[in-house]
Amino acid sequence: MSLFGKLCSGGEKAGKMPCPPCQQKETEKHPEREDMLVKKKDFLKKKIDHELLIAKKNSIRNRRVALQALRRKKCHEKHIKYIDCALKAMRDILNEMNDLIKDITEEHDPTLDMSDTLHTSGSLGVEFDEDELLAELERLVTNLDPSVFEKDNTEDKVPFFNVLSTASPSQPAKTDEDEIEDDLEYLRRWAN
Fold first, then answer.
1. Contacts of 87 (CB under 8 A, 6+ apart)
2. Dihedral sign computed on CA atoms, order 98, 102, 107, 112
3. Which of 5, 58, 83, 160 could in theory staple to 62 by disulfide, Cβ–Cβ 3.0 to 4.6 A?
4. Minimal CA–CA distance to 27: which of 84, 97, 74?
């Protein structure tokens, strides 16, 4: 695993561990990871200062040691750039996640309010006048055809609604053809 991968993931063991099931746990670890990266950056700055000191001391006597110290210094500077990029990315991601969570919660609340209003009868915009309903019922009673009350040996059916079959192992469910024949029989009796 590269050094950058180790810095961002928390070490070699972290790469082998399965992802946690909840994203909230990851956001809780964010400050810890950010602190760890800041500490590594501070440590690398101290190492850069140390390598620079070694390069200065050995610049005249031992040029090979001085060049090696400068190479290590450049490598540490490169890693600091990686850490800065990682910190910036982590902060940007956290800000985006917070904005997303904020947007989701803002969108979620109106949907709850909307579902509440749909389930209440007063919010449908229809108000019923009891006197008007009673007058309509009286008109229905006066215009009622007496043949509606005559009982037939057949059961009452509503032709436009499909009723779910209540098939049991002793009585198999009706097929579409059986239902059509029953509907035709009902219509013949109704016409007579």
1. 34, 37, 38, 41
2. positive
3. 58
4. 97
Residue 1 contacts residue 15 (beta carbons within 8 Å): yes
Instruction: State the residue for tokens 């229905």.
Output: 140
How far is Cα 176 from Cα 85, in angstroms, rounded to an integer? 68
pLDDT digits (tens, 9 = 90+) for 145-172: 767 666 654 555 555 545 555 555 555 6
Cβ atoms 173, 167 nearer than 8 A: yes
Q: Which two tokens stand for residue 66?
A: 């001085």
User: What does R_g of the chain's alpha carbons equal in angstroms?
Assistant: 40
pLDDT, one tens digit per residue, over 81-96 is 999 999 999 999 889 9
d(CA 78, CA 4): 10
User: 33-58 pLDDT, tens per residue?
Assistant: 899 999 999 999 999 999 999 999 89
**Contact status, residue 153 vs residue 124, Cβ threshold 8 Å:** no
Q: Given this model, what pLDDT does residue 73 score?
A: 93
